[in-house]
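Request: How about a record?
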Amino acid sequence: MDSYRTIRCEAHDEFTEKRSRFIGHAFPVQTVAEAEAAIKKVRSRYWDARHNVYAFSLLAGNAVRSSDDGEPQGTAGAPVRDVLLGMGVKDCCVVVTRYFGGILLGAGGLVRAYTQAAQLALEKAGVKTMALGTALRIVCDYSSYAGIKALICSCGGVIGEELFTDQAEIRFCLEKSEVGSFSARLTELTNGKIAAEPTGEKFFEI
């Protein structure tokens, strides 16, 4: 997989449908254990709710799980899961809490409500795209630092870490398709005196 989408931060949002209160929660997670901890956190906080429906999708192993938590089969966990899969969001757990308001929504109404709750939570959390790129490092003198940093940014690079000693070290990521062009421009900029050293592959936000 060369790219995927995930959320920026933990978030929640809610709405009311026919007196039933739906609260959507989105959590960034990377493992089943982290997803289970997020679900437990919501269940503890909203212990008196009728349902705490969940779904999560992980990058590792393409793991996907969901639960209706007592709602009619296929009306709750599946819609939440389908929102994650439809948006291509991974490393994310969505839990939707429902306080029953006394009015039955029917199967179609439940699907629409749980879908909306999941969408609201993801919208509040913010979705970003991560691409598998090439991680590189450059060590340069301070007279070259500003120009090299500007070049990295102009090529769509994302700087992750900078170290300053007797020289400057810049660690950054580039889309694989940009590495050749960047290297050529770096050679031109520095008269061939400075080169970028690849250090592996890494997912980074684009």
Summary: Residues 89 and 151 are 31 Å apart (CA to CA). The mean pLDDT is 96. The beta strands are 3-7, 11-17, 20-28, 51-57, 64-67, 92-99, 127-140, 158-164, 168-175, 197-205.
